[in-house]
Amino acid sequence: MQHTLVLVKPDGVARGLTGRILARIEAKGYVIEDLRLVHPERALLEEHYAEHQGKPFFEPLVEFMLSGPSVAVRLSGDRVIEGFRSLAGTTDPTTAAPGTIRGDLGRDWGLPVQQNLVHGSDSEESSARELALWFG
Ligand code: RTP
Ligand code: MG
């Protein structure tokens, strides 16, 4: 049994897609163990995205994540880390496969950073670190 951190990012919350996204996660059979609406501080986001510091999209990414609240979810299930990332689809929502959250609900808006609706931890190490950050 694994745990992962899922975020419905500010674009997903602002577009009113939280319920649809959570319904897809539940329909897949994963279990929501904790859930909260978070208005993150810059320091939290800089730690969350530490691996991307120095990249050209880092600052726009942090600004985007500060633009509104996210819904943070502690999700559990067998192989949920790779399972949720498969459900989410690839990073670029324009080319993410249809049938995925990003592929069905997202697209490129011509903005400086990919607004792609969701985040999911990419390894057991990341999920432990990220769950501690967002849920304490
Ligand atoms: P995530 O971490 O959010 O689940 O997404 P990911 O693994 O698919 O993407 P990652 O490479 O970790 O990038 C983190 C987030 O940064 C934004 N991004 N924008 N070139 C760009 O404009 C660009 N590249 C990445 C996206 O919001 C991505 O989810
Ligand atoms: Mg990532």
Description of the structure:
InterPro entries: NDK-like_dom, NDK-like_dom_sf, Nucleoside_diP_kinase, Nucleoside_diP_kinase_AS. Belongs to the NDK family. Keywords: ATP-binding, Kinase, Nucleotide metabolism, Nucleotide-binding, Transferase. This protein is an alpha+beta fold. It has a single domain (2-135), classed as Alpha-Beta Plaits. It is built from 7 helices and 4 strands. The chain has helices at 10-14, 18-28, 42-48, 58-66, 80-88, 101-105, 124-135, and strands at 2-8, 31-38, 70-77, 118-120. The chain has a 4-stranded antiparallel sheet with strand order 2-3-1-4, with helices on both faces. The two termini are 21 Å apart. Bound molecules: ribavirin triphosphate (RTP) and magnesium ion (MG). Ribavirin triphosphate binds next to strand 4.
Entry keywords:
single chain, 136 residues, alpha+beta, Alpha-Beta Plaits, 4-stranded antiparallel β-sheet, 4 strands, globular, binds ribavirin triphosphate, binds magnesium ion
The total count of helices amounts to: 7
Residue share in helix: 40-55%
CATH superfamily: Nucleoside diphosphate kinase-like domain
| Rg estimate, integer Å | 14 Å
CA-based shape? globular
Spans where pLDDT lies below 50 across 5 or more residues: none
Keywords: ATP-binding, Kinase, Nucleotide metabolism, Nucleotide-binding, Transferase
Protein name: Nucleoside diphosphate kinase
Catalytic activity: a 2'-deoxyribonucleoside 5'-diphosphate + ATP = a 2'-deoxyribonucleoside 5'-triphosphate + ADP
Binding site for ATP: 9, 57, 85, 91, 102, 116
